[in-house]
From TrEMBL:
Protein name (record): HTH lysR-type domain-containing protein
Source species taxonomy: Bacteria, Pseudomonadati, Pseudomonadota, Betaproteobacteria, Burkholderiales
UniProtKB keywords: DNA-binding, Transcription, Transcription regulation
Superkingdom of the organism of origin: Bacteria
Residue ranges constituting the HTH lysR-type domain according to the UniProt record: 1-58
GO MF terms held by the record: DNA-binding transcription factor activity; transcription cis-regulatory region binding
Family, similarity comment: Belongs to the LysR transcriptional regulatory family.
Presence of the UniProt keyword Transcription in the record: yes
Pfam families attached to this UniProt entry: HTH_1, LysR_substrate
Length: 298
């Protein structure tokens, strides 16, 4: 038994004649006929019969056709499965990204990348900056997308890693609106200002480290009464929308809320904290697709 005999037989079942089926299979008519007879010899019974209207399958032929089609489908799927690991090694691109950036910035970045690089399959893991750096160093991901600021530790800022600035962002003070464009809570600037409820980042968050590095220079921090803390910017955003307090959040996350009037700035742009959005990769990553993406971005 040879697989090509089954492929011939399936082609014959779909064709009006032996000549047509031989042409479809790209073999001569005599050679095709010999292969069908070899299959009949293996089966031990006639599989086709000739009549005035051409060829037709016998009952045994129809039974074999069903099995042959199923076997060929299984083999094709098995072959695809066996090839998948090799394809993934060449074409799967693994990203680690902060939870906020994974949906506020990364989708647009991926669209941009697909315009400058060959086709690839993206796999995204959302994580904190600390674990994202460790994943990059342990070669568990190909790229790390993160906010960067002078206050953050630069473990990935070494000769073994490269980075590109792919965007700009800023932490902005926001509050639910009291009325159009006027915040319910304002950033306290003097000791005489009233204390306000403060929605803070968890200490493990890089955004929290960035904010705390500037907090005492942009406001009277003692007047910030922490009433809520989370390691998820989206959760803090939800609390701001509920009117629970004042927060600094990435502009990339709340731009739409500000434009639609669902939030208001809680101070002037003087208290904004500028940040870069950077994409990191190892200099030693061997994947051609990673190099193609990097070249396209440059």
């Amino acid at each position: 038994m040879q697989i090509k005999w089954l492929e011939d037989f399936v082609a014959l079942a779909k064709s009006p004649s032996l000549v047509h089926a031989a042409h479809e299979r790209n073999v001569t008519h005599p050679a095709f006929g010999r292969r069908i007879r070899a299959l009949e010899s293996w089966a031990g019974v006639p599989l086709i019969e000739r009549g005035p209207n051409g060829i037709a399958l016998t009952a045994a032929g129809r039974t074999l056709l069903a099995s042959a089609s199923e076997v060929l489908d299984i083999l094709r799927e098995t072959h695809k499965t066996l090839q998948l690991p090799g394809y993934e090694r060449l074409h799967k691109v693994r990203f680690a990204a902060g939870r906020t950036l994974s949906h506020s910035v990364l989708p647009r970045l991926l669209t941009r990348l697909r315009g400058v690089a060959p086709a690839f399959q993206s796999q995204v893991t959302t994580t904190s900056l600390q674990y994202g750096i460790e994943m990059l160093m342990d070669e568990e991901v190909d790229f790390l997308l993160c906010h960067t600021h002078e206050s953050l530790p630069g473990k990935a800022d070494s000769k073994d890693y490269m980075h590109l600035v792919v965007g700009r962002d800023k932490l902005v003070a926001v509050s639910a609106p009291l009325s159009t464009r006027h915040p319910r809570y304002r950033v306290p600037r003097t000791a005489a200002d009233t204390a306000v409820p403060f929605l803070d980042f968890a200490s493990s968050m890089s955004l929290g480290l960035i904010l705390r590095s500037r907090l005492y220079t942009i406001c009277t921090a003692d007047k910030l009464n922490v009433v809520y803390e989370s390691d998820l910017s989206e959760a803090i955003r939800a609390m701001v929308l509920e009117g629970a307090g004042l927060a600094w959040l990435p502009l990339s996350l709340v731009r739409g809320d500000l434009e639609q009037g669902n939030m208001a700035r809680a101070d002037s742009t003087a208290t904004d904290i500028d940040m870069d959005i950077c994409l990191y990769r190892s200099r030693h990553n061997p994947k051609p697709i990673v190099r193609s993406i990097w070249t396209g971005l440059q």
